[in-house]
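User: Before I run my own analysis I want an independent prediction to cross-check against. Here's the chain; please return only the structure tokens and, at the end, one sentence I can use as a sanity check.
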Amino acid sequence: MKSINKSEINKIVIRGPDWVGDFVTATPVYRELRKNFPAAKITAIVRDWTKGMLEHCPYVDEIIEYDSRSKSIKYSWEHVKILRKEKYDLAILLSGNYNAALIAWLAGIKYRVGFNYDKRGHLLTHSLKEKGREYRLDRAIRILETLGLNIENRKSELWTGPEDERFAKATLREFKSKFNKLVGIGPGTQEKEKCLPEEKLIELINSLDYGVVLFGSKNDISRGEKIVAGVKDKEKVLNLINKTNLNQLAACLKLIDVYVTGDTGGMHIAYTMDVPVVAFFGPTDPGEALPRKSKARAIWKNPGCSPCTLKKSHQCRTLECIDKITVEEIKKLVVESL
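Assistant: Structure tokens:
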């Protein structure tokens, strides 16, 4: 593929990934684009739940919220008009959404770069193919390398504000003072097939001699309540499920000594904040999700059918990949990480 003429690029729009974990792993794209185009205007188009994570990002000039769940043609056309008016020169499509490529094409953006997901390659000037088992961050960076850009640093980063740091300290100060170490646990994931059963998490918490902080979204409230109800010593658990936004979560995780989680957005936030992570994997592949050089350690049984598509795992009767994970091996990695 042809490299671009950097002198032609004055305005760049980045369509961010739709999910939190993918968003976090793709954050180097914002930084490296700014280094390559220090004078360009950079606009980020992101989902509502990741918009706040860019509020303190020093590499972005403008943030536009986009609801990719909307099926309204009128809604999409309004975004086409916004991009047309600004006359962007380069569109970086980190989202695999077909509509993202269509909007960039209709907006008349000269360079449109992304992966050929959903048979959208004909809408792109630079269409990339997947390489199979590839770490998500490497996949995102490959978009920039395709354009012949210089990449200095591949590490993910997040940008919390002083208000997030104050929230974290105020929320955890008293609880943290009671324990030698704090273990964070994220009991939920977007797909229930990737979740460890509540019974195993309860057993894990009961076996630990540390304080435990539960994190999660509103979708995890029920799981969190069941876990707290099953713990023998209620004083050792602080339930922060649905009590933090993503920036506050990042700030809180910096005060945690190790984070136990499945393959979810919180996992990516934790290792990006340089927190030791013990991550359990079932139907997904840790080789695609975890960086090679980090404090993250994976438990993956890979019974032969994993990794599989999540659609297929919905039909799985046993979820052997998750069921074979034991409390003992999770605890062992937790203790080793402290």
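Sanity check: The chain has two domains: 6-146, 162-337.
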